Amino acid sequence: MLLDTRHFGEINIDEDKVLYFEEGLIGFEDMKRYALIPNEDSENPFLWLQSIDTPDLAFAITDPFVFRKDYEIEISEKVKKQLEIEEKEDVVVYSIAVIPEDVNKISINLQGPLIINVKSKKGKQMILNTDQFPVRFFVFEDRIKNIE
Questions:
Q1: What is the pTM (predicted TM-score) of this model?
Q2: Is the four-CA dihedral 141, 62, 3, 33 of positive or negative sign?
């Protein structure tokens, strides 16, 4: 499928790789189909979650475990059933990133991770029931302290 996007121009999306978020994402409940777009720089830890339903919409996402080694989530049985999760190896977890003009202030949402079953191509944004992890975790926190 050919998609004319705001951020990437015209891209070809393999329909077999489209991810389906039955409930959408928080604030974007009507947008349910997405594609993962890798970053061209293989050392860059961010990639893109491109909306199929709204080509102007793309979220920067990343593996939260890269930035918080102590990050942990528990996926409920209800969510496992909803996403058809059978094996732990079929699950990937991402956090939505906010990338401001000052890249030293990049933050990721650790409170609302994206859970994706790569086998069933189903995803869900969960809200964690803990205050251990913030909505805005600054990935370069040490740099911010030195700047301010």
A1: 0.90
A2: negative
What CATH code is carried by the domain that includes residue 63?
2.30.290.10
Residues 6+ apart with CB under 8 A from 105: 138, 140, 144
- Residuewise pLDDT in 10s, the chain (148 residues): 888 888 888 988 999 999 999 999 999 999 999 999 988 777 888 999 999 999 899 999 999 999 999 999 999 999 999 999 999 999 999 999 999 999 889 999 999 999 999 999 999 999 998 889 999 999 987 554 444 4
Q: Give how many domains the chain has, as a whole number.
A: 1
